[in-house]
Design a protein that fits this description.
The protein is of the alpha/beta class and about 140 residues long. It is about 30% helix and about 30% strand. A 6-stranded mixed sheet has the order 1-3-2-4-5-6. The protein starts with a strand and ends in a 10-residue tail after the last helix.
Length: about 140
């Protein structure tokens, strides 16, 4: 069970994903003993999907480009991953641990909990951001 987060490690990864000058589009935070640490970062969502296993819990901070052809915006998503083989006790603990992560990861457009790798796609994340993002008028094409 997590009782702490590596705030400096999470903050550095968080700022890297948010930076306009960085190619990093996601950062993955995992449990290491009783601490949540920054495990790795990357550019493509399929890379992130491959990092998640059925028997673990993890958090990810993801940059998504959303909007229509008239206005492309970068938005951010906080993901909580709970694999299908995670025990009931560990599942229950996720919400408490997420509060610790959110002390560092504070600015995001949408928060999602995913339990199936099939949910983790660029399209799914873009649609989730578009739903909370207000108007998307455009010209009817993307």
């Amino acid at each position: 069970m997590a009782s702490a987060v590596d705030k400096e490690g999470l903050r550095d990864a968080y700022q890297d994903v948010r930076a306009d000058t960085s190619d990093t589009n996601w950062a993955l935070f995992r449990y290491k003993g009783a601490e949540i640490i920054h495990d790795c970062s990357g550019e493509k969502i399929p890379e992130l999907k491959e990092m998640l296993s059925d028997d673990e819990r993890a958090f990810a901070f993801v940059r998504v480009f959303a909007g229509d052809e008239m206005s492309k915006r970068k938005k951010f998503v906080l993901l909580t991953w709970v694999g299908p083989s995670v025990s009931t006790l560990k599942r229950a603990r996720v919400s408490i641990d997420k509060a610790l992560v959110k002390q560092v990861i504070q600015n995001f457009a949408v928060e999602l909990q995913i339990e199936s790798p099939d949910e983790l796609t660029d399209e799914y994340l873009r649609n989730a951001v578009d739903k909370v993002g207000g108007a998307n008028y455009g010209t009817g094409t993307r």
